[in-house]
Amino acid sequence: MEEEAIPVRGSMIGADLSNHSVDDLEAYRDALHAEIVRVNEAISRRGATRNAAEQFFKR
After folding, report:
1. Is the pTM of this model over 0.85?
2. CA-to-CA distance for 18 and 24, rounded, in angstroms?
3. What is the enclosing helix (H) or strand (E) of 6?
4. pLDDT (tens digit, 9 = 90+) per residue, 26-47?
5. 25 and 17 Cβ atoms separated by less than 8 Å
6. Rounded-to-integer distance, Cα 14 and Cα 38, Å
């Protein structure tokens, strides 16, 4: 079964990349890296919120 592609800023995760230029691929890579950073920051914020809640309810 094929995985469904996820749209990402004008391109698709899992799509055929062979028709893209080096410049397009580098821009795509940079956009993906920026998204990874954004997701990691969101995970950190959520983890901090959860830890604060756990500490509050341990009282």
Report:
1. no
2. 11
3. strand 6-8
4. 998 998 999 999 999 999 999 8
5. yes
6. 20
